[in-house]
Amino acid sequence: MRETIFPLWNDSDIESNLTVCEFPENDSVRPAILVVPGGGYGGVCRSTEGDPIAARFAGLGFRTFILHYRVAPNRFPIPQQDILRAIRMIRYNAEAWRIYPDQLAVCGFSAGGHLCASSGIIPDDVENYSDDVIDKMPGRPNAMLLAYPVITSGKYAHKGSFQNLLGKDYAKRKREFSLETRVTKESAPAFIWHTVEDQAVPVENSYLLSEAMRKNGVVHELHIFPCGPHGMQLGYGRADIAQWPEQAAAFLYGTLGFTRADRPEKPRTVVLTFDDACKSHLENVAPILKKYGFNATFFICRFNDEWRKKNQKHLLTGKEIKELSDMGFEIGNHTWNHPDLKTLSEAEISEEIGKLNDFFAENGIPKPVSFAYPGGPFAENAVPVLKKHGLIAARTTEQVPWNLKKHDLMQTPSFPLQKNSPHAFYFSLGGADANNVPVLLFHGVPDLVHEWVDTAPEFFAKCMKYLYDNDYRVISMKQYLEENGLC
Ligand SMILES: [Zn+2]
Question: Could you tell me the distance, in angstroms and rounded to a whole number, from the CA of residue 458 to the centre of ligand 1?
Answer without folding.
Answer: 22
